[in-house]
Amino acid sequence: MNKPTQVHCFINNKKVIGKSANSFPVYFPATGEILCTANSASVEQLDEAVEIASQAQKKWEKTPSQERSRILKKAAELIRYHTNKIAELEVWDTGKPISEAIEVDVVTAADAIEYFSNLAVTLHGDYYSIQDADILTKIEPIGVCAGIGAWNYPFQIAAWKSAPALACGNSFIFKPSELNTLSAVLLGEIYAEAGLPAGLFQVLQGDAELGQMITAHNGIQKISFTGEVGTGKKIMAASSVNLKTLTMELGGKSPLIIFNDTNPETAAKAALAANFYTQGEVCTNGTRVFIQENFLPQFKKAIEGRSNNVRLGNPFEKEVNVGSLISANHKELVENFINKGKSEGAKAFTMGQIPSGDCAKGYFTQPVIFYDCKDSMKIVKEEIFGPVMSVLTFKTEEEVIERANNTEFGLGAGIFTKDISRIQRMIDQLEAGIVWVNNYNITPVEMPFGGTKQSGFGKENGIDTLNHYTKRKSIYISKGDVFSPF
Ligand code: NDP
């Protein structure tokens, strides 16, 4: 568990220090300790990375797809081999429990890279025969793609975005959040060790200013963004400079709807995991928990019986299952929401204890379940991105669908019931990019992941993602005479 002492960019397969005069401190969120100072990449380094990415991409798209596939497969193997090392960096970066980093962050990253390595060899266009012509479509890479990431799953986000980009023959430049600067560079080293040619995966460190420079850069043709709705809108506007292709993975306030035919223990397990995993810093979390009214007492009892299972503490300890929030600012924001919930009349039930010792100055907050919530409350309407669950009650299916959809977001939704007809009706009506039935927040790589409404557009994972990293050229080969009125 070596403490990180330096932050690098990864340009042309080399670790280099950012050359901008802008620097920022790198914290360990679980103790608040400053680990080191990082330098942002300079404008010149961005230009250099884009130029290198552009040259490398031209060769990469001509590399046989089997070769591309082999390199990516090797990278997935190396990720699995280095699981502990990656997970440790992920904990330094985020303050999340190491057990989660091992079981989810690293696994889902390796799965995505392996999955897209398999799809790399399946890319193909179409053929249509019409009377006067043969029509073909040819699949082509987009070119230089960039990813701008949020801070909750830095390694997974870098992998989920770069894997399809590289499989489709693009090059990829990644800007992690300034709050997590470590693990994406290790991904770069792993790709290099797997044989990925220089310039195809690069990492530039920096804050929103660097993000803006990337978005406005004419040499970049696509941006895949994960972050807040407001930032997504700014990126869309700035991307118009050269009409970049976009993927937007934005925020959510997802409904988790539990009917009274659900086993109370199942309901409690689902609601807790859907709200407190990764300290609640998960975009798809089911933060509006709608419980059928006459089921509330059983749900409450089952939840409260699980109170002792919530263990905050040093995230490097295996038994800890709630880590620290990402930063002091974020802790303040989450706690302001909690205070607002109380002042608006919701009843708070708090779980776990703030750790002492080294972690006493970490950015921990106790998970809270709010009962007696109303749809109009701020905690129910706005994304909190922390361990705060709002419990609401409903009577009928029609009522809960209308209330669940009454939000600008449309990322995830969950339904728990044994009634299959009800499930089918609700799937049709819920306005969400993903609907989980009798489970929640499971993201197998085969399943396209992404939102609708203001939660964004475009997908990650699943075959559909290939469409977001390729363009299609249509070819008309005439069999007949040229038509002309002249
Ligand atoms: P932000 O939108 O604040 O930041 C995301 C990234 O964008 C960061 O790298 C940030 O840099 C950068 N950035 C900020 N401003 C600009 C700008 N004007 N132009 C270009 N880049 C910019 O989101 P958070 O990091 O706070 O992440 C939390 C949000 O992400 C939540 O809303 C959450 O729901 C969403 N999210 C969505 C997911 C999904 O798949 N749908 C998954 C995970 C999170 P820096 O941080 O260095 O300032």
Query: How can the largest sheet be summarized?
Result: 7 strands, mixed
Low-confidence stretches: none
What class, by secondary structure content? alpha/beta
What assembly state would you assign to the polypeptide chains in this entry? single chain
- Beta-sheet strand percentage? 15-25%
Bound molecules: NADPH dihydro-nicotinamide-adenine-dinucleotide phosphate
Strand order of the largest sheet: 14-15-16-13-12-17-18
How helical, in percent, are the residues?
25-40%
Overall mean pLDDT score?
Answer: 97
The helix tally amounts to: 14
How would you describe what is shown here?
The chain has helices at residues 43-60, 65-81, 83-94, 98-120, 154-167, 183-194, 208-215, 229-239, 264-276, 296-304, 328-343, 378-381, 397-405, 420-429; strands spanning 9-11, 14-16, 23-28, 33-39, 126-130, 133-141, 144-148, 171-175, 201-203, 222-226, 245-249, 255-258, 288-292, 347-350, 368-371, 388-394, 412-416, 434-437, 456-457, 470-478. It is α/β, with parallel strands linked by helices and 486 residues long. Helix 2 (65-81) runs antiparallel to helix 4 (98-120). The longest helix is centred in the first third of the chain and has 23 residues, at 98-120. The chain is globular and about 75 Å long. The N and C termini lie far apart (77 Å). Strand 5 (126-130) and strand 6 form a beta hairpin. It has a 7-stranded mixed beta sheet, with helices on both faces. It has 14 helices and 20 strands. NADPH dihydro-nicotinamide-adenine-dinucleotide phosphate (NDP) binds at residues 148-152, 175, 177-179, 207-208, 211-212, 215, 226-228, 231, 234-235, 249-252, 283, 383, 385, 411, 451, 456.
